[in-house]
UniProtKB/TrEMBL annotation:
Protein name, per record: Carboxylic ester hydrolase
Organism the protein comes from: Mycena metata
Gene3D superfamilies, sorted: alpha/beta hydrolase (3.40.50.1820)
Residues in coiled coil: none
Major enzyme class: hydrolase
Catalytic activity field: feruloyl-polysaccharide + H2O = ferulate + polysaccharide
Amino acid sequence: MPQPSALVEDWQLVELQTPRKLLTTGLSIWTPTNLSPAAVACLALKTTLQLENTTIIDVSYLPTGSKVDAHGPCAESADVHTALCRVQFFTNTTDTSSMRAEAWLPDEWYGRFLVTGNGGLGGCIDYGSLDYGTSLHFATVGSNNGHDGTNGDVFLNHPEVINDFAARAIHVEAVIGKQITEAYYGRAHNRAYYSGCSTGGRQGTQAALKYPTDFDGIVAGAPATDFNHLVHWSAMLGRAIGAPDPASSPGFIPPQLWKVIAEEIMRQCDGIDGVLDGIIMEPDTCNFDPEALADGRRLDSCLLPPQIAALHKIYSPLYGKRGDVIYPRFDPGAEGDSGCDLFSGRIVSRAEDWIKYTIVNNTDFDFSEYGLEHLELMDSINPGGIATFDGDLSTFRDHGGKFLTYHGRADPEIIASGNSKRVYDLIVQTLDSFTTNVDAFYRSFLIPGMGHCARGPGAPRFGQFWPGSNAMNESSHNILVALVD
Ligand SMILES: *[C@@H]1O[C@H](CO)[C@@H](O)[C@H](O)[C@H]1NC(C)=O
Ligand SMILES: *[C@@H]1O[C@H](CO)[C@@H](O)[C@H](O)[C@H]1NC(C)=O
Ligand SMILES: *[C@@H]1O[C@H](CO)[C@@H](O)[C@H](O)[C@H]1NC(C)=O
Ligand SMILES: *[C@@H]1O[C@H](CO)[C@@H](O)[C@H](O)[C@H]1NC(C)=O
Ligand SMILES: [Ca+2]
């Protein structure tokens, strides 16, 4: 005999597996011959939707195989793999801030609602993720996170735009998106999900902390958590090995030497995991010794002492005055053949813009002045509460929320994977592992050989976002479907 709870689950399974088909009867008397009932219901939203602080920009019905193009600073496009109703809207988040967003509502709907995230300092609706979510039959929403484009200059003296970026936009699009979903299908969603990577991973983490009842399930990839410290680490790496002018920065390592460094790291550490495959399974076991590149053991290269010193800095955690870890080290094995952005000879624009436009508020800020006192300023201002470094997920947990996070261990672009270990430890400490089984609602996957959100020689495809043509949609292969389970 099945237990009652098993019966309920079986029933839910049947319910979830039976897609709701839109209006197969009833409205056909008004239908012009070339419009399907779903298209008619969709276009009707243009006049019927009444939503707080919101203007409907456009409503259109997109048959399978349509293409969506974006204009302006976010020149993205996407193929539409499943027929859907597209609602473009504009919401005032306050008197001095607003958000552009879209709800994509598939014809075949299983009752699931999904919000997708952004990247970098963006600013751009992620059409690929909207297509991906709808191809898995989620009613899917994405926004510009409160501003257009990928630059930070929009933040200057616009604290409400910062607030949208730091936390509020995802909340508002969840609130409005759920209302649009209900208006279209004639019933409310039964579960709400979130999925994003990088800044999107931070947004998902922030949602669980600040708006813990917005989502039942969250996938947060390579999260840019402890954001201010991440910015400081990026700026310090840019400065430590920054200007490619040897007089001002003798530690600068030109791109062609990174191939040599990457090879030496693999020579020293690839075999620790027992397999020579170009992947360091656990970068924290790799105590890379840069001196090997200084003493002439290799004929094709020889690094100068300031360059060796720079490597020591890169592959050590960044410490504060009291010996506290400000940010973990760059993962050995994540370099790639030509070195990453962080080492390109200038401070990466994400960090530069954040410091200039939200912290010092000076467009001409001179980065030769940058130092630890700016981190202290960043910590004290913490614009919009951006930090996202807090282990108290108790409300999210008590609401029944489930959280899956992943981080590639060869993330060359932006975010050291050691930071996800710090966040996990913080959550365990905060929730007290003796009373909370953290793994029952929060699981962290560190993925060997995977780059930033995707790519790399490891196993970088598990349904985290648009997977191209060969989507794997079973939960054993797909993190979003696994979250639903
Ligand atoms: C949004 O704000 C603008 C500018 O303040 C205003 O003109 C507009 O009416 C507002 N829209 C809604 C729907 O509240
Ligand atoms: C609408 O705007 C007002 C004023 O900015 C705000 O208090 C309210 O929460 C907004 N509603 C939604 C759904 O965002
Ligand atoms: C997965 O794909 C199969 C075959 O196309 C389809 O029948 C099924 O509904 C899909 N499942 C989900 C969750 O989208
Ligand atoms: C810079 O402006 C932001 C608001 O846009 C403010 O929060 C911050 O305190 C300002 N920085 C300084 C140093 O005053
Ligand atoms: Ca290996």
